[in-house]
Amino acid sequence: MTSRKEQLDAFLSRTLSETIAHIPLEKFAQCFPSMKKGKVIAVIHQQLIEFFEKSCKQEYANLIKERDLNKKLDMLDECIHDAEFRKLHGESEVDISNKQPQEILKAHLYSHKRELLDKLNQDLLDIDKENEGLSTQIAGEEKATEDCISRMQSLIQKLEKTVYGMNEKNLAKEAHDTLNDLLPYIQNPSSTWTNALNEQGNIER
């Protein structure tokens, strides 16, 4: 089934064809009796026909755009389709002869509002589902963070016990001195080793 837009386009083409058919070359040449029949009058006739067709189609396109007819024709097709669907499924016909225009418009807008409400409800369900997934993800990340903190606390406790044991055995100062000796090598190993070698050479001399 063709849409009303296609029907309107077809009607324009048919109307132009019928209009142009009433302006044949013979009748057109009669408007210029002083000119001889031939290629010149035929070219003028063809140019006039092409200009007429182009002008009509351009004006038609402007009207369609200015009045937003394509959208309105789609809405009309949708209204008719909905009415046929309701009739096919046994819904009783509504007599609109005694209805006010506001009532008819309100009834038409009801179906669109209902569709919009259904879409919003579906969007809300999708958002709830997404939020549920995010909540699950956040809970998992919180659990992983708590486990990490627990492991760090356990390591700190072990370290404190180790340091306490070293203090009891008087090993803390020895470890501290050793670390101080090694610290230059860790911070700048190349220069430290060079200085150490130079000092060793001086001692040997």
Automatic annotation (TrEMBL):
One of its GO terms (biological process) is chromosome segregation. It is found in: Chromosome, Centromere, Kinetochore; Nucleus. InterPro entries: Nnf1 (IPR016851), PMF1/Nnf1 (IPR007128). One of its GO terms (cellular component) is MIS12/MIND type complex. Keywords: Cell cycle, Cell division, Centromere, Chromosome, Kinetochore, Mitosis, Nucleus. Transmembrane segments: none annotated. Pfam families: Nnf1. This is Kinetochore-associated protein.
